[in-house]
Amino acid sequence: MLQPKSVKEVQEAVNTASTAILIRGGGTKTALSSSSGTETVIDLSNLSGIVEYRPEEFTFTALAGTPLVNIIEMLAENGQWMPFDPPMAKIGSTIGGTLATGLSGPGRYRFGGARDFILGIKWVSGNGEMLSGGARVVKNVAGFDFPKLMIGSLGRFGIISEITLKVFPKMNSFGTVEWDCGCIYDAVAFVKEMTRTPIDLFALDLEPAGIVRARLGGLSTTLNNRLARLSDYRDGASIILGDEELNLWEQLKEFLWLPHDCSLIKVPITPDLIPQLDTCLADSQLHRRYSVGGNIAWIGWSGTIEDIDTLLSELGLGGLLLIGESGTPWLGTSSVITGFADKVKKALDTEGRFLPL
Amino acid sequence: MLSTFVDELKGMFPGNQLLTSKAELIPYESDGLTAFKALPRAVVLPEHQSEVIDIVRLCHRYSVPFVPRGSGTSLSGGSLPNTDGIVIGLNRINRILELDAEQRIAVVESGVINKNVSDAAYPYGLYYAPDPSSQAVCTIGGNVAFNAGGAHCLKYGMTSNHVMGIKAVLPDGNVVELGGPSLENVGPDLVGLFVGSEGLFGIALEITLRLLPIPEAYRTVLAAYPSMELAGDAVAAIIASGLLPGAMEIMDNLTIQAVEESVNAGYPIDAGAVLIVELEGELSEVEEEFVNLQEIINKSGAYNVRSARNQLERDLIWKGRKGAFGALGKISPAYIVQDGVVPRNQLGAALAEIDSLSEKYGVRVANVFHAGDGNLHPNVLFDNREEGMLEKAEALAGEIVKMCVRRGGAITGEHGVGMEKRHFMTDMFSDQDINQMLKLTNELDPHGIANSGKMFPVDRMPGI
Hints:
The complex is a heterodimer.
Chain A: H1 7-16, E1 21-24, H2 30-33, E2 40-43, E3 50-54, E4 59-63, H3 68-76, E5 80-81, H4 95-101, H5 108-111, E6 118-124, E7 130-134, H6 146-150, E8 159-166, E9 168-169, E10 173-180, H7 184-194, E11 203-207, E12 211-218, H8 220-231, E13 238-240, H9 242-253, E14 263-268, H10 274-283, E15 287-291, E16 296-301, H11 305-315, E17 318-323, E18 330-332, H12 339-348
Parallel strand pairs in A: 1-2
Antiparallel strand pairs in A: 3-4, 4-8, 5-9, 6-7, 6-8, 10-12, 10-13, 11-12, 14-16, 14-17, 15-16, 17-18
Chain B: H1 2-12, E1 18-19, H2 22-25, E2 42-44, H3 49-62, E3 66-69, E4 86-89, E5 96-100, E6 105-109, H4 114-121, E7 126-127, H5 140-146, H6 153-156, E8 163-169, E9 175-179, H7 190-194, E10 203-210, E11 212-213, E12 217-225, H8 228-240, E13 247-252, H9 253-262, E14 273-281, H10 283-298, E15 304-307, H11 311-322, H12 324-331, E16 334-337, H13 347-361, E17 365-370, E18 378-382, H14 389-406, H15 425-428, H16 431-444
């Protein structure tokens, strides 16, 4: 395993690699960061640190291996944050790993995901060149949007070395309203109703069988009235506040609900498809959560990867294996790569130095 | 070969969908950047997606360049024709295919007008957030190609942040579907890459858009300042306070005068600058934020502050801002609008530098811009009937673009590189960066036919 300490050392590592390159950040997403033994592993945990932070600009630039917790702490000191709620921070995820896997937490609901906050990147290409895309300002459309392309690309196009993100002022208080709708069908119907409320929800999650949680963030002076208003949407509301509330969302974001012997799979979905998927999963009594207004399913899978791959394909869904055995990370329909992605791969990694799509 | 190609095109479109006479082609010789003109060989106006695909395949077969065009509002010459190619006009591909209010999604064809999406979503309490000034005429396809912005990018981002899926025909005629109806995705963000590719990756046929609930309340404030500097400082103070307004816009005196003459929006005609700030969201939050905003503005040196009391007054404030570009046409026979971005703490210094450049060249510059995100819109005003003035205006505009990059910014915030800023790409990107972009273009468009000539410096484009 190579552990470069500088971009130059990353370039050297790429130039001297004799087998396909697997990139590792904090190693928290085991299915993506574990080697099968044949790859050249480049570990970026030593490529860490803040390059630039301008609180008045609401932007920062960090090296890819910088742990999320360091960034979260630095931003909090200035009343700022990454509202897309990057997950797995407490267990050691890095900013590079988060963006390369394209992961956002429940807060993605309000202001968008990792893709919506990235401004610029530097990366090392397959032939060892240091390239850049985007800019360090909050608005820019010059050149192709390589920063967005790298979101979710799992290091197949190059090694992200440096990232510029925009950040937002942090909301200063939070509260959650919880309802038990009884069954998945009613819960999904209620989630769809809530996505159109004029109340600015920060997060909207669903936990089978029928628990719906809507989170509010904002000014402390208006929070109680807003929570009361939100509670009126349906009978049986309970309000969660304070540490209990913070811990609730923390355990969702950190996947503390995931049993140790389960794989973790992310499945992009739409609310309409949730009942069908959930019926299949409920039969096996699997742990699962639906987040971002019913746009992501997080599945704790205890069966074989082949079985979930087949199930997702049958339902017309794609998935990404995050925690579990290394192998093919893309499952279901997302394993069918379009001609477009192939061409991008050919143009960006002509010699195939990184793992195949 | 071109004549065989045109014959084949005539065979496909025997009626009035194919324009070839000079009189018919002239309306297409320019887009919003009228300083650039070129007559295409033909203009074809497909009415179905399948026709677009057939045309692209024909172009690929004959290696004939094509320029996709929506309503032709590009301010960077993004839909300027190639003299040896055709224009594919997409205005007739304009159906809203699906509006799923429950899942807050609209699937539209590329020729749908931006504002029509919000109008269609309105009965469901939803809207489409990106609002370029040209939203009453510009198309979603054009918005996608150039990653269009607007006044409300500060809080909700650009077009790219609202596009979830794209069905597109690539320059080689292959049809691909990228992304989908979910807000989330796994795998590389190919939708993100496609948006803003300026037509070089082909033509978007269908686009899946994210809709948002219409904000419950707005608070729109118009503050007049004796100087641009004070208005700029007010923006910095608002941002530093932790408020996140939907929009923050500044206009200078020259623009105010033009706007007042043109649309009579009630802006103080003697102001050195006006600042528009709009808060939006849930009623109770907006009201509380409005108190904070008033405190900041009261301390910021504004000598005249007006808050819209109803939708009519809000519309009037925005009418002035959105009509600013059109109004400048009344005080100058021609103008070039620049679109550079600077870090927000550099706004004051950048404006001062634009002032001194304007003085140095003896050319007037009117400033109207998205202050909240540092996106300048200096309008270089000139008389194109006077010899040498276009060149002079271009030279001044060029210095402004370079100044933005020097200050750590970007050459374009929302108008795109197009024809107009392609020579400045090397100011922002290294040779290797540009080579990588070209390599991708070559892979997707081996014949170099899709909106070729745009984005890259001429000397870097093979075959141009």
